[in-house]
Amino acid sequence: MSGHSKWATIKRQKGAADIKRGQVFTKLANAIIIAVRQGGGVSEPESNFKLRLAIEKARDANMPKENIERAISKAKGEDAKGLQEVVYEGFAKGGVSVIVEAATDNAQRTTSEVKNIFKTFGASFGQPGAVAYQFVTKGVIVIMKNGKKYDEIFNIAAGSGAEDIEEAGENVFIYSELSQLSKTRDRLKEMGFEIAATEVIRKPISTVAVQTEEVRLKTEDFLNKLEELDDVQKVYSNLDKKNSSY
């Protein structure tokens, strides 16, 4: 994906404007519950970085404080045990690989909904592991340039634990190992950079350029429809809009 489309994806993950407010809050609450569970039950954001990111994302979406606290409390109770994480893999038109991460209390329902969208768009539903090897899990920090030169940002980021940096208009994507994400982010904030987003993502090892604009638009529509499902948390693909040959 190009920098622009990656930023669009991250913004959608922070709460799409075309998704109902209640649906956004449900997704964010589930993300908080998952962060607590992945953190071994630790419900203090100071000691659970993923939870801190989930809470910040909820605040960015103007989720009420009581909703956030309710989600954290739920994560510590019996009710949260019915919520499970599921991952789906497959291929969109043009050979584009797709990964869908969901949180659901009814895996059968969620699987049916995801498969239906795959079928509607002529995509191929794959088995576990079909495309996961084409992605690596990374931390990404999106910062605003705010008048700073790319070379200046590059040098500071490189000295703050970043392992890869990409320029995308007025945004800069800074990638790091998960173990370095918190440190890198804190260092960038100390240096005065405006943090637009911090995410744990599946980064494609390589990207696929489609042959026509029609295929690209249909693929993006397919990804959007998946993201709009109530249970879906994140959708990743290796679509390369920037270098598509049309």
Features:
246 residues, alpha+beta, Arc Repressor Mutant, subunit A, Alpha-Beta Plaits, 3 domains, 4-stranded antiparallel beta sheet, 42% helix
Mean pLDDT: 87
Number of domains: 3
What is the straight-line distance between the termini?
A: 15 Å
Spans of at least 5 consecutive residues with low confidence: none
Report the order of strands and helices. Answer: HHHHEEHEEHEEHEHE
Say what oligomer this is: single chain
Share of residues in helices? 40-55%
The fold-level CATH name of the largest domain is Alpha-Beta Plaits
Q: Please state the CA-atom Rg, rounded to the nearest Å.
A: 18 Å
Strand and helix layout:
Elements: H1 3-13, H2 21-38, H3 49-60, H4 65-75, E1 84-92, E2 96-104, H5 107-120, E3 124-126, E4 135-144, H6 150-158, E5 164-168, E6 171-176, H7 178-190, E7 194-204, H8 213-227, E8 232-237
Antiparallel strand pairs: 1-2, 1-3, 2-8, 4-6, 4-7, 5-6
Helix pairs in contact: 2-3, 2-4
